[in-house]
Amino acid sequence: MSDDFQNPDLISTGRLPREELVVQLMQDAYDRYVGVDRGAVADYIPALADADPALFGLSIVSVTGASHSVGDALHEFSIQSVSKAFVFALVCDALGPEAVLEKVGVNNTGLAFNSVMALELNGGSPMNPLVNAGALATTSLVPGATAADKWAFVQAGLSAFAGRPLVLDDDVYASEAAHNRRNQAIARLLESYGRIAHDPLEATDVYTRQCSLLVSATDLAVMGATLADGGVNPVTGERVVDPSVCRYVLAALATSGLYERSGEWLFSIGLPGKSGVSGGIVTIAPGKGSLSTFSPRLDAAGNSVRGGLATRYLSGALGLNLFASRPEVEREG
Protein backbone atom coordinates (compact mmCIF):
# COMPACT_ATOMS: atom_id res chain seq x y z
CA MET A 1 0.00 0.00 0.00
CA SER A 2 1.62 3.22 -1.19
CA ASP A 3 0.41 5.32 1.74
CA ASP A 4 1.50 2.82 4.38
CA PHE A 5 5.26 3.39 4.36
CA GLN A 6 7.26 2.33 7.38
CA ASN A 7 11.02 2.79 7.59
CA PRO A 8 12.52 -0.56 8.66
CA ASP A 9 15.69 1.17 9.84
CA LEU A 10 13.73 3.00 12.52
CA ILE A 11 11.91 -0.01 13.98
CA SER A 12 13.16 -0.77 17.50
CA THR A 13 13.26 -4.52 17.89
CA GLY A 14 15.14 -4.97 21.15
CA ARG A 15 16.34 -8.41 22.12
CA LEU A 16 15.74 -11.24 24.54
CA PRO A 17 17.89 -11.44 27.70
CA ARG A 18 21.00 -13.60 27.76
CA GLU A 19 20.42 -17.31 27.23
CA GLU A 20 21.16 -18.49 30.76
CA LEU A 21 18.64 -16.05 32.21
CA VAL A 22 15.97 -17.17 29.74
CA VAL A 23 16.56 -20.80 30.74
CA GLN A 24 16.40 -19.95 34.44
CA LEU A 25 13.21 -17.90 34.14
CA MET A 26 11.48 -20.55 32.03
CA GLN A 27 12.18 -23.12 34.73
CA ASP A 28 11.03 -20.67 37.41
CA ALA A 29 7.72 -20.19 35.59
CA TYR A 30 7.23 -23.92 35.23
CA ASP A 31 7.96 -24.56 38.92
CA ARG A 32 5.66 -21.73 40.03
CA TYR A 33 2.58 -22.94 38.17
CA VAL A 34 2.90 -26.67 37.53
CA GLY A 35 0.90 -27.36 40.70
CA VAL A 36 -2.03 -25.07 39.81
CA ASP A 37 -5.13 -27.23 39.39
CA ARG A 38 -7.78 -24.61 38.63
CA GLY A 39 -9.84 -24.92 35.48
CA ALA A 40 -11.17 -27.88 33.55
CA VAL A 41 -10.30 -29.73 30.35
CA ALA A 42 -12.59 -28.90 27.39
CA ASP A 43 -15.28 -31.56 27.08
CA TYR A 44 -17.65 -30.24 24.43
CA ILE A 45 -15.43 -31.96 21.85
CA PRO A 46 -15.23 -35.57 23.06
CA ALA A 47 -11.71 -36.16 21.74
CA LEU A 48 -10.39 -33.24 23.83
CA ALA A 49 -11.99 -34.52 27.02
CA ASP A 50 -9.37 -37.28 27.19
CA ALA A 51 -6.46 -34.84 27.56
CA ASP A 52 -4.23 -35.33 30.60
CA PRO A 53 -4.86 -32.28 32.83
CA ALA A 54 -1.38 -32.61 34.34
CA LEU A 55 0.40 -31.76 31.06
CA PHE A 56 2.27 -28.45 31.14
CA GLY A 57 4.92 -27.21 28.74
CA LEU A 58 6.60 -23.91 27.88
CA SER A 59 8.68 -22.97 24.86
CA ILE A 60 10.33 -19.79 23.62
CA VAL A 61 11.90 -19.27 20.19
CA SER A 62 13.82 -16.11 19.32
CA VAL A 63 14.09 -14.44 15.94
CA THR A 64 17.61 -15.85 15.79
CA GLY A 65 16.18 -19.38 15.86
CA ALA A 66 17.37 -20.13 19.39
CA SER A 67 14.90 -22.33 21.25
CA HIS A 68 14.39 -23.11 24.94
CA SER A 69 11.73 -25.41 26.38
CA VAL A 70 10.66 -26.90 29.69
CA GLY A 71 8.11 -29.52 30.69
CA ASP A 72 5.83 -31.08 28.09
CA ALA A 73 6.80 -28.68 25.31
CA LEU A 74 7.10 -31.47 22.72
CA HIS A 75 3.78 -33.12 23.55
CA GLU A 76 1.52 -32.90 20.49
CA PHE A 77 -2.05 -31.63 20.67
CA SER A 78 -4.55 -30.27 18.15
CA ILE A 79 -3.91 -26.64 17.30
CA GLN A 80 -7.60 -25.64 17.51
CA SER A 81 -8.28 -21.89 17.46
CA VAL A 82 -4.61 -20.92 17.48
CA SER A 83 -4.77 -21.82 13.77
CA LYS A 84 -7.05 -18.82 13.17
CA ALA A 85 -4.18 -16.34 13.50
CA PHE A 86 -1.99 -18.09 10.97
CA VAL A 87 -4.70 -18.77 8.40
CA PHE A 88 -5.60 -15.09 8.70
CA ALA A 89 -1.96 -14.28 7.94
CA LEU A 90 -1.92 -16.58 4.91
CA VAL A 91 -5.13 -15.08 3.52
CA CYS A 92 -3.92 -11.52 4.10
CA ASP A 93 -0.73 -12.42 2.26
CA ALA A 94 -2.67 -13.92 -0.65
CA LEU A 95 -5.43 -11.32 -1.01
CA GLY A 96 -4.04 -8.24 0.73
CA PRO A 97 -4.89 -7.06 4.25
CA GLU A 98 -7.35 -4.41 3.09
CA ALA A 99 -9.47 -6.96 1.21
CA VAL A 100 -9.68 -9.16 4.31
CA LEU A 101 -10.40 -6.14 6.51
CA GLU A 102 -13.36 -5.26 4.29
CA LYS A 103 -14.79 -8.78 4.23
CA VAL A 104 -14.08 -9.91 7.80
CA GLY A 105 -13.18 -6.93 10.04
CA VAL A 106 -10.85 -6.59 13.03
CA ASN A 107 -12.99 -5.34 15.92
CA ASN A 108 -13.67 -7.28 19.11
CA THR A 109 -17.22 -8.61 19.49
CA GLY A 110 -17.17 -8.51 23.29
CA LEU A 111 -19.00 -11.83 23.19
CA ALA A 112 -18.05 -15.51 23.29
CA PHE A 113 -15.94 -16.99 20.49
CA ASN A 114 -18.88 -19.01 19.10
CA SER A 115 -21.56 -16.36 19.52
CA VAL A 116 -24.39 -16.24 17.00
CA MET A 117 -25.75 -13.07 18.61
CA ALA A 118 -22.57 -11.20 17.65
CA LEU A 119 -23.37 -11.80 13.98
CA GLU A 120 -26.95 -10.65 14.30
CA LEU A 121 -26.03 -7.56 16.30
CA ASN A 122 -23.53 -6.47 13.65
CA GLY A 123 -25.53 -6.94 10.46
CA GLY A 124 -23.90 -10.25 9.62
CA SER A 125 -20.34 -8.96 9.93
CA PRO A 126 -17.99 -11.55 11.45
CA MET A 127 -16.22 -8.58 13.12
CA ASN A 128 -12.78 -10.23 13.39
CA PRO A 129 -10.97 -13.36 12.13
CA LEU A 130 -10.34 -14.79 15.59
CA VAL A 131 -13.89 -15.68 16.60
CA ASN A 132 -15.50 -18.68 14.92
CA ALA A 133 -17.64 -16.65 12.51
CA GLY A 134 -14.63 -14.64 11.36
CA ALA A 135 -12.45 -17.73 11.11
CA LEU A 136 -15.03 -19.47 8.94
CA ALA A 137 -15.27 -16.42 6.68
CA THR A 138 -11.47 -16.20 6.51
CA THR A 139 -11.06 -19.89 5.69
CA SER A 140 -13.65 -19.53 2.93
CA LEU A 141 -11.38 -16.88 1.36
CA VAL A 142 -8.40 -19.26 1.16
CA PRO A 143 -7.21 -19.56 -2.47
CA GLY A 144 -8.48 -22.64 -4.28
CA ALA A 145 -11.42 -23.64 -6.44
CA THR A 146 -12.33 -26.67 -4.35
CA ALA A 147 -12.34 -27.60 -0.70
CA ALA A 148 -9.44 -29.97 -1.37
CA ASP A 149 -7.42 -27.12 -2.90
CA LYS A 150 -8.17 -24.88 0.07
CA TRP A 151 -7.18 -27.57 2.55
CA ALA A 152 -3.90 -28.22 0.73
CA PHE A 153 -3.13 -24.48 0.87
CA VAL A 154 -3.90 -24.28 4.59
CA GLN A 155 -1.92 -27.38 5.53
CA ALA A 156 1.10 -26.29 3.50
CA GLY A 157 0.96 -22.75 4.88
CA LEU A 158 0.67 -23.76 8.53
CA SER A 159 3.47 -26.29 8.01
CA ALA A 160 5.67 -23.51 6.61
CA PHE A 161 4.96 -21.45 9.73
CA ALA A 162 5.92 -24.41 11.95
CA GLY A 163 8.97 -25.33 9.88
CA ARG A 164 7.91 -28.96 9.54
CA PRO A 165 5.03 -30.94 7.96
CA LEU A 166 1.97 -30.82 10.22
CA VAL A 167 -0.33 -33.81 10.14
CA LEU A 168 -4.02 -34.20 10.84
CA ASP A 169 -5.20 -35.85 14.06
CA ASP A 170 -7.84 -38.10 12.51
CA ASP A 171 -9.53 -38.83 15.84
CA VAL A 172 -9.91 -35.16 16.73
CA TYR A 173 -11.11 -34.32 13.22
CA ALA A 174 -13.72 -37.09 13.29
CA SER A 175 -14.87 -36.03 16.75
CA GLU A 176 -15.16 -32.37 15.81
CA ALA A 177 -16.83 -33.12 12.48
CA ALA A 178 -19.49 -35.09 14.33
CA HIS A 179 -20.14 -32.22 16.76
CA ASN A 180 -19.73 -29.03 14.71
CA ARG A 181 -23.40 -28.25 14.12
CA ARG A 182 -23.03 -24.80 15.67
CA ASN A 183 -20.21 -23.87 13.30
CA GLN A 184 -22.24 -25.18 10.38
CA ALA A 185 -25.13 -22.99 11.50
CA ILE A 186 -22.83 -19.97 11.83
CA ALA A 187 -21.49 -20.61 8.33
CA ARG A 188 -25.01 -20.80 6.91
CA LEU A 189 -25.93 -17.58 8.70
CA LEU A 190 -22.86 -15.94 7.16
CA GLU A 191 -24.05 -17.18 3.78
CA SER A 192 -27.46 -15.58 4.33
CA TYR A 193 -25.68 -12.26 4.87
CA GLY A 194 -23.43 -12.73 1.83
CA ARG A 195 -20.38 -12.96 4.10
CA ILE A 196 -18.89 -16.30 3.11
CA ALA A 197 -16.98 -16.87 -0.12
CA HIS A 198 -17.38 -20.64 -0.52
CA ASP A 199 -19.94 -23.36 0.15
CA PRO A 200 -20.63 -22.96 3.89
CA LEU A 201 -20.46 -26.65 4.77
CA GLU A 202 -17.25 -27.16 2.81
CA ALA A 203 -15.71 -24.09 4.44
CA THR A 204 -16.71 -25.49 7.83
CA ASP A 205 -15.04 -28.79 7.00
CA VAL A 206 -11.78 -27.11 5.96
CA TYR A 207 -11.89 -25.06 9.16
CA THR A 208 -12.47 -28.22 11.21
CA ARG A 209 -9.47 -29.84 9.55
CA GLN A 210 -7.20 -26.86 10.22
CA CYS A 211 -8.15 -26.98 13.91
CA SER A 212 -7.26 -30.68 14.01
CA LEU A 213 -3.63 -30.35 12.94
CA LEU A 214 -1.16 -31.63 15.50
CA VAL A 215 1.38 -29.21 17.00
CA SER A 216 3.52 -28.92 20.11
CA ALA A 217 4.23 -25.87 22.24
CA THR A 218 7.59 -25.65 20.47
CA ASP A 219 5.85 -25.66 17.09
CA LEU A 220 3.63 -22.79 18.21
CA ALA A 221 6.67 -20.84 19.39
CA VAL A 222 8.31 -21.28 15.96
CA MET A 223 5.07 -20.17 14.29
CA GLY A 224 4.84 -17.12 16.53
CA ALA A 225 8.51 -16.31 16.03
CA THR A 226 7.86 -16.25 12.29
CA LEU A 227 5.40 -13.41 12.86
CA ALA A 228 7.91 -11.75 15.21
CA ASP A 229 10.60 -12.01 12.53
CA GLY A 230 8.75 -10.14 9.80
CA GLY A 231 7.32 -13.27 8.19
CA VAL A 232 10.55 -15.27 7.94
CA ASN A 233 10.70 -18.58 9.78
CA PRO A 234 13.80 -18.13 11.98
CA VAL A 235 14.47 -21.89 12.04
CA THR A 236 14.16 -22.70 8.32
CA GLY A 237 14.95 -19.27 6.89
CA GLU A 238 11.89 -19.52 4.62
CA ARG A 239 9.77 -16.43 4.00
CA VAL A 240 6.20 -17.43 4.81
CA VAL A 241 4.33 -14.09 4.57
CA ASP A 242 5.15 -10.49 3.74
CA PRO A 243 6.48 -8.30 6.58
CA SER A 244 3.48 -5.97 6.38
CA VAL A 245 1.12 -8.88 7.01
CA CYS A 246 2.75 -9.59 10.37
CA ARG A 247 1.92 -6.26 11.94
CA TYR A 248 -1.71 -6.47 10.81
CA VAL A 249 -2.05 -9.96 12.25
CA LEU A 250 -0.43 -8.91 15.54
CA ALA A 251 -2.77 -5.92 15.79
CA ALA A 252 -5.79 -8.20 15.37
CA LEU A 253 -4.38 -10.58 17.97
CA ALA A 254 -3.88 -7.73 20.43
CA THR A 255 -7.52 -6.70 20.21
CA SER A 256 -9.24 -10.08 19.93
CA GLY A 257 -6.85 -13.01 20.38
CA LEU A 258 -8.16 -13.91 23.85
CA TYR A 259 -11.81 -13.29 22.93
CA GLU A 260 -13.77 -11.32 25.52
CA ARG A 261 -10.76 -11.45 27.85
CA SER A 262 -8.50 -9.69 25.33
CA GLY A 263 -8.53 -6.38 27.19
CA GLU A 264 -7.56 -8.01 30.46
CA TRP A 265 -4.84 -10.00 28.66
CA LEU A 266 -3.34 -6.91 27.07
CA PHE A 267 -3.60 -4.99 30.35
CA SER A 268 -1.71 -7.61 32.37
CA ILE A 269 0.56 -9.21 29.77
CA GLY A 270 1.01 -6.59 27.07
CA LEU A 271 1.55 -8.98 24.15
CA PRO A 272 -0.56 -10.08 21.20
CA GLY A 273 -1.55 -13.69 21.65
CA LYS A 274 -3.94 -16.45 20.66
CA SER A 275 -5.41 -19.27 22.69
CA GLY A 276 -7.04 -22.57 21.79
CA VAL A 277 -9.38 -24.89 23.69
CA SER A 278 -6.89 -27.76 23.60
CA GLY A 279 -4.75 -25.68 25.99
CA GLY A 280 -2.26 -23.93 23.75
CA ILE A 281 -1.41 -20.23 23.89
CA VAL A 282 1.03 -18.44 21.59
CA THR A 283 2.26 -14.89 22.31
CA ILE A 284 4.50 -12.77 20.12
CA ALA A 285 7.06 -10.12 21.02
CA PRO A 286 7.76 -8.35 17.69
CA GLY A 287 11.43 -8.34 16.80
CA LYS A 288 12.29 -10.59 19.76
CA GLY A 289 10.53 -13.92 19.45
CA SER A 290 7.58 -15.94 20.65
CA LEU A 291 6.55 -17.62 23.88
CA SER A 292 4.10 -20.51 23.80
CA THR A 293 2.51 -22.59 26.53
CA PHE A 294 0.47 -25.76 26.70
CA SER A 295 -1.77 -26.88 29.55
CA PRO A 296 -5.26 -28.32 29.00
CA ARG A 297 -6.98 -26.87 32.08
CA LEU A 298 -9.09 -23.93 30.86
CA ASP A 299 -10.86 -21.00 32.47
CA ALA A 300 -14.48 -20.06 31.75
CA ALA A 301 -13.48 -18.18 28.58
CA GLY A 302 -11.62 -21.21 27.15
CA ASN A 303 -8.08 -20.01 27.89
CA SER A 304 -5.40 -22.14 29.56
CA VAL A 305 -5.11 -21.28 33.27
CA ARG A 306 -1.49 -22.33 33.78
CA GLY A 307 -0.56 -20.95 30.38
CA GLY A 308 -1.94 -17.54 31.22
CA LEU A 309 -0.17 -17.43 34.56
CA ALA A 310 3.17 -18.49 33.09
CA THR A 311 2.86 -16.04 30.21
CA ARG A 312 2.11 -13.17 32.57
CA TYR A 313 5.13 -14.00 34.71
CA LEU A 314 7.50 -14.39 31.76
CA SER A 315 6.24 -11.31 29.95
CA GLY A 316 7.41 -9.24 32.89
CA ALA A 317 10.50 -11.24 33.80
CA LEU A 318 11.82 -11.35 30.23
CA GLY A 319 10.94 -7.73 29.47
CA LEU A 320 8.48 -8.62 26.69
CA ASN A 321 5.54 -6.35 27.56
CA LEU A 322 5.10 -3.95 24.64
CA PHE A 323 3.83 -1.18 26.89
CA ALA A 324 6.58 -1.28 29.49
CA SER A 325 9.14 1.52 29.47
CA ARG A 326 11.68 3.21 31.66
CA PRO A 327 13.26 6.66 31.59
CA GLU A 328 16.19 6.92 29.23
CA VAL A 329 18.03 8.87 31.91
CA GLU A 330 17.21 8.36 35.58
CA ARG A 331 16.60 11.79 37.11
CA GLU A 332 17.23 12.86 40.63
CA GLY A 333 14.48 14.79 42.19
Topology overview:
Elements: H1 19-33, E1 57-62, E2 67-71, E3 77-78, H2 83-95, H3 97-103, H4 117-121, H5 132-140, H6 147-162, H7 170-177, H8 181-192, H9 200-211, E4 214-215, H10 217-228, H11 243-256, H12 262-268, E5 273-275, E6 280-285, E7 289-294, H13 305-317
Antiparallel strand pairs: 1-2, 1-7, 3-4, 5-6, 6-7
Helix pairs in contact: 1-13, 2-3, 2-6, 2-11, 5-8, 5-9, 6-9, 6-10, 8-9
What report would you give on this structure?
- This protein is α+β, with helices and mostly antiparallel strands and 333 residues long.
- The chain is 43% helix and 9% strand.
- The protein is built from 13 helices and seven strands.
- A five-stranded antiparallel sheet has the order 2-1-7-6-5, sandwiched between helices. It has a two-stranded antiparallel sheet with strand order 3-4.
- Helix 2 crosses helix 6 and helix 8 (181-192) crosses helix 9 (200-211).
Q: Strand order across the biggest sheet?
A: 2-1-7-6-5
Outline = globular
Q: What's the pLDDT, averaged over the residues?
A: 93
The largest β sheet comes out as: 5 strands, antiparallel
- Reading the helices and strands in chain order gives HEEEHHHHHHHHEHHHEEEH
Amino- and carboxy-terminal Cα gap:
47 Å
Strand content: 5-15%
Structural class designation: alpha+beta
Organism: Cellulomonas humilata
InterPro entries: Beta-lactam/transpept-like, Glutaminase
GO molecular function: glutaminase activity
EC number: 3.5.1.2
